[in-house]
Amino acid sequence: MATIFLLSVDRMLAQRIDGAMSGRATVELVQAIEREDLAGPCLIVIDRAAIPPERALSAAIATVVESANGRPVVLATQEMEAEPLLRAIRAGVDDVIPRDGEGTEIAAVLARLLNDAAADRASRGRLTLVLGADRDACAMVATDMAIAGGGGSTLLIDCTLPTSAAASYLDLGVDYGLASAVGDRERLDASLLTSTAARHGPSGLMLLTLDGGTGAEPVGLTPGDLAALIRLLRTCCSDVVLNAGSLRHGGLLREVVAEADRVELLCGQSIREIEACRRLLDRIGAERERVAAMRLLVWDHLPGVLLDGRRMADALGVGSVLALPVDRARMRNALNAGRPMAMEADGGAYMAAIRRACGVAAKTGGIDRLRRAMLKVVEKAS
Strand order in 42-47's β-sheet? Predict the structure, then answer.
C-alpha cells in the first residue's frame, strides 16, 4: 500500500487526509524524511503550520524536496492566494492542497500524485504489444496470447474500432472502456480494475476496449492520457497485452514500443500486407534496434507460398520470425462461438505456435494422447 508522509504534529490533519484517501494509503506523522523509508510508492505532505515563522517557506520546501529523492511533495496550507502558491510551486512542490479542504478536494490531488508515483516506481507487469494491418486477426492473436501466456492477473486492451473484435471472440459484453478508466485514473487500482473491467469467466482474463461498448471512438482521449493509463494499468496487473488495433498515432505507438517487454508484428504472406506493415513501422518511427527486436508472426502461414517468413522479416527489418499456421474453419467457428482457440483442449498447430511465442510449454491435447497410446501398443506388441 502507498504511504503518505505528513511533516506535521497535527493529528487532526492526519485524520482528515486519512479519511479523504479512504484506505488507499497509510498516513504517517513524521518530523523528518529518511531516505530508507521511501522504498515504495509514497508522497510527502508539508504542513505549512508546522514551519516556524522565522524560517523561509522556500528554504523549508527545498530541504524536503532534496530529501524526497524524486517523490512527489505537496504543501498543505491555508494561504490559497496566487502569490504564496506561486512561491511554493517555484520552490519545488508538485501541488498544493487546502489545509482545511473537503475530503474530495484533498483526495483528487493526492490520489493523482500517488498513481503517478506508483506508475513510476512500483513493480510493473509485463507488457506485450501486438501490431499489424489485419485488425481482427491481431485481436484474436492478442486474445489467445493473453490467455495462454498470462499468469496471475492478466489484462487485454483491445483498441479495435468501431467495435472490439476481442470482445466478440470472448463473447463478452463490455460497458467499461479506456475513456472510463482515464476518468477513474485518480483512484484506479487493482481492486477497482477487477470490479469494473469485463471479465472472461473461464480464463479469468480482464478486457478493456477502446470503444467501451459504445461502437464509436471515444471523444476527448489524448495520446498522453492513454500512455499514462497504460503505465498505470501495468502496476495493477501481472501481464498486460495491448492490441494496437486502430491506434495510428505515431508518437503514442513509439512510446508504447519503447516501454513494451515484447512486440509482436503480425503480417500475412502478401506484398500488400508487408507494405501496410512497413507504413505502420514508418509512422511509429522507432529506432532500428527496436524494430530489429520485434518478432514477425506470419499469419496463416502456408509453406508453399514463395514469400516466406525470412524474406518478409528482411523486408521489414524485423529480427526473428514465427509461423502461425491457421485452420480457417476452426478459427471462424471459434470466433462465431465466442470460444477462443486458447480454451480448446487441442488447439492444433496454431495454438502450439502461440504457446511457443509466449514461452509456455506445449499443451498435450487429444492428438498427442492418441499418439502416446499408439506408441504404447506398438511397444507392447514388440
Answer: 25-30, 2-7, 42-47, 73-77, 95-98
Measure the CA–CA gap between 132 and 188, rounded to whole angstroms: 30
Cα–Cα distances in Å, from 119 out to 41, 86, 185, 204, 238? 9, 27, 11, 24, 13
CA distance 97 to 103: 10
Sign of the four-CA dihedral 178, 180, 185, 191: negative
Q: Are the C-beta atoms of 140 and 335 separated by less than 8 Å?
A: yes
Torsion angle, CA of 229/230/232/236, rounded to 10 degrees? 130
Domains along the sequence of the chain with CATH: 2-121 (3.40.50.2300), 126-370 (3.40.50.300)
Measured distance CA(277)–CA(373) in Å, rounded: 44
Do 158 and 145 meet the contact criterion of CB atoms below 8 Å apart?
A: no
CA distances to 2, 20, 146, 155, 184 from 193, rounded to whole Å, are: 17, 20, 17, 10, 10
Q: Which pTM was predicted?
A: 0.72
Tens digit of pLDDT at every position of the chain (382 positions): 678 999 999 999 999 998 888 877 889 999 888 877 787 778 899 999 899 888 888 889 998 988 888 888 999 998 888 888 888 888 888 899 998 888 888 888 888 888 777 666 556 789 999 999 999 999 999 999 999 987 778 999 999 999 999 999 999 999 999 999 988 887 787 888 999 999 999 999 999 999 998 888 888 888 888 998 998 899 888 899 999 999 889 999 999 999 999 999 999 999 999 999 999 999 999 888 999 999 999 999 999 999 999 999 999 999 899 999 999 999 999 999 999 999 988 888 999 999 999 887 665 555 555 665 666 665 666 5
Rounded to 10 degrees, the C-alpha dihedral 66/71/72/77 comes to: -50
